[in-house]
Amino acid sequence: MPLHKSAEKRLRQAARRNERNRARKKELKGVLKNMQKLIDANAAKSEVEAAYKAAVQKLDRLGVKRYIHPNKASRKKAQLTKALNNYTPTAS
């Protein structure tokens, strides 16, 4: 337990920030999983493109605001772009 008032405040702030960071990263994981799920399910190209757009927007936002490292955001965007460009839905 903190002994000083300022240390107590820092503890509260850290807890709030930790919760916020976890929520943002969880949102990102959901968006990325959604795109991967659409690719695995052999969805229409337009659906995958919409998921790609949402994922790139989320990555850009989190990279700029430093929730994730900007280079990680850039790397993930490149991976998603490559997956989208190589994606061709097969008739099943």
Q: State the total count of DSSP E strands.
A: 0
- Count of DSSP helices? 3
Question: Strand fraction band?
Answer: under 5%
Element string (H = helix, E = strand): HHH
Shape: elongated
* Structural class by helix and strand composition: mainly alpha
Mean pLDDT: 95
User: Alpha-carbon distance between the termini?
Assistant: 60 Å
Unreliable runs:
none
Helix content: over 70%
For the biggest sheet, the summary is:
none
Assembly of the depicted chains: single chain
Radius of gyration from CA coordinates: 18 Å
Function: Binds directly to 16S ribosomal RNA.
GO molecular function, one term: small ribosomal subunit rRNA binding
Protein name: Small ribosomal subunit protein bS20
Family: Belongs to the bacterial ribosomal protein bS20 family.
Summed up:
This protein has 3 helices and no strands. It is mostly helical and 92 residues long. The chain has a domain of 62 residues.
Give an overview of the whole structure.
The protein is elongated and about 65 Å long. With 92 residues, it is mainly α. It has helices spanning 5-40, 45-64, 70-86. The mean pLDDT is 95.
List its salient traits.
92 residues, mainly alpha, 3 helices, 0% strand
Question: What secondary-structure arrangement, pairings included, does this model have?
Answer:
Blueprint: H1 5-40, H2 45-64, H3 70-86
Helix pairs in contact: 1-2, 2-3
